[in-house]
Amino acid sequence: MIEVEFFNEKQNCSVLIREDEIATLTDEELAEFRISREGMRRLFSEAAKMIEGVSASDRMRVCADESLDGKFELNLVQYSPISDPLMQDIPTKTKN
Question: Strand 60-66 relative to strand 72-78: parallel, antiparallel, unpaired?
């Protein structure tokens, strides 16, 4: 399942959205991200191409950033499950 991180300016936080959640987003939520449903689908299509060959162990995530001209750019970024706020609720294995 493809996931893309979007920044929600209204709530001042990052939100990880899965591709299967696009249809359930309300018009108000899309407006908070300043993107149309069709635009979001296009970004997920581009994200799918970006993550080809990337495995879960690579700890990479696609992030969508809105540029000054209002267009979205996708970036592939590496994250740490220990310091990533989006991963805080997910249990991680630790050595005892």
Answer: antiparallel
For the cut 80, the answer to whether the pLDDT of residue 83 exceeds it is no
Contact 87, 79 (CB under 8 A): yes
What pTM did the predictor assign?
0.75
| Coil, strand or helix at 75 | strand
In tens, the pLDDT along 36-73 reads 999 999 999 999 999 999 887 888 889 998 888 889 99
| 60-66 vs 13-18, strand pairing mode | unpaired
* CA distances from residue 51 to 4, 13, 32, 75 in whole angstroms, order as listed: 11, 23, 26, 10
CA angle 48, 41, 16 (to 5 degrees): 70
CB-based contact 5:64 (threshold 8 Å) = yes
